[in-house]
Amino acid sequence: MKTNILTLALSFLAMTAIAQKSEIRDAEDAIEDGNYGEAKTLLSTAEQVISEANDRWTERFYLYKGQAYLGSGENVSIEDLKTAADAYQKAKDMGSDEAEEGLVAVRNGLVQGAIADQNAQKFSDAAEKLYTSYQLSGQTDTIHLYYAANNAVQAEDYEKGLEYLNTLNEIGYDGSGTEYYAVNSETGEEEMMGSKEQMDLMTKTGQYSDPREQKVPSKRGDITSLIARIYVSQEKYDKAEAAMESAMQENPNDIELMQVQANMYYNMGDKEKYNEIMEKVVEQAPDNPSLYYNLGVNSADLGNTEKAMQYYQKAVELDPEMTDAKLNMVALILGKEREIIDEMNNLGMSKEDTKKYDELQKERNQIYEEAIPYLEEVIQNKPSNSEAVRTAKNIYTQLGNEDKVAEMDAMLQNQQQ
Question: Rounded to whole angstroms, how far apart are CA atoms 228 and 238?
């Protein structure tokens, strides 16, 4: 009786193994036909008794499972990509040569999915995919951790963002080096690869072409900026300042870091400190019009209109087409009108008051004449700038220049068509 039971059990195991092999073969055929859902179902059935298969069939099972869950590699959920990665890793551990290529494809799918998520402003999903890719690389592709941190901050997941950023600081991540790109043969679009090995491998498959390398600068400033930004948003100003001081000690002449530090103080409301640092930045980059523009904005906020005007003029001198600087100059000039209007409104009807009124009106017209050249330059370069055209129209109206008023009206009408 015992022999019969053993014979039946062995027969059952043999039948199970045959059925299992059949399902694995059928899954392979389904994958080749692009029927990934069918392959998943077949493999799910086979997985229930996979422990009873020999190593060769177990290796094939995990390889096909990775292929089934990776699918075409497009629009794949992160859950399926993680499942595919786990299956490929098991197949690789068992000696599969194809599994390594599969792992590269999974990581590429994660990166491309993250790019799509970023474009759709799904920053939390992008961060998770990039962090997963970083883990799959054996925590060697730190560039993915850096971009994961950026996306976590964009998603306002500051705790996760800080975790990633602090990890980067702990390992001394700099970020300078080389980025690798190749053109997707199907879409014709250039995509960033995770490493030179990945670029070379994807190019060999024929799925990508035109590989190229690009040198990138240090990302220390960006990392510090993100850390400081998080702490400032949390009103943890002591930690924000400590992060900046640490970075500045390592890179005391780094202009980018100095700007980040200045912006930090600006966000904290310390505009005097902002100005102090920005003036040092300007000393190192005297030909950068944007720096002068930013200093002009801050000086105006601090009420120092004379200094603001000097900064704007310098910005325009360096970049004659800087529209925002010219419009801000116009705003500063017209700001002088407020006092005159208040004084005119307080005058009475006496002969002396009438005389004073006329004198103030002349001063007011001089202000208008001072502002007009900047407005005309803006309008000449950008006739579609309705703000500049409307302001010019109002000034010409006050000056009684009807021809110019009609010209501005015509421009406004053209803009509305």
Answer: 10
CB distance 285 to 291 below 8 Å: yes
Distance between CA 66 and CA 81 in Å, rounded? 8
∠334-417-375 over CA atoms, to 5°?
20
d(CA 412, CA 399) in angstroms, rounded, equals: 19
Q: Which of 241, 384, 405 is nearest to 323 (CA)?
A: 384
DSSP state, 97?
S
d(CA 105, CA 281): 44
- What pLDDT, in 10s, does the model give residues 106-128? 888 888 889 989 999 999 999 99
pTM above 0.90, yes or no: no
Q: What domains can be seen in the chain, in order of their start residue?
A: 2-178+191-209+216-221 (1.25.40), 226-285 (1.25.40), 321-417 (1.25.40)
CB contact at 8 A, 214 and 179: yes
Of 358, 292, 304, nearest in space to 335 by CA: 304
Instruction: Write out pLDDT tens, residues 199-239.
Output: 898 899 899 999 999 888 888 877 887 888 788 778 888 88
- Host H or E run for residue 349: none
What single string gives the DSSP state of each residue in 101-138?
Answer: HHHHHHHHHHHHHHHHHHHTT-HHHHHHHHHHHHHHTT
How many angstroms separate the CA atoms of 249 and 114, rounded?
34
CB burial string 203-237: b at 16+ within 10 A, e below: beeebbeebeeeeeebbbbbbbbbbbbbbbeeeeb
Q: Return the sign of the alpha-carbon dihedral for residues 252, 255, 257, 262.
A: positive
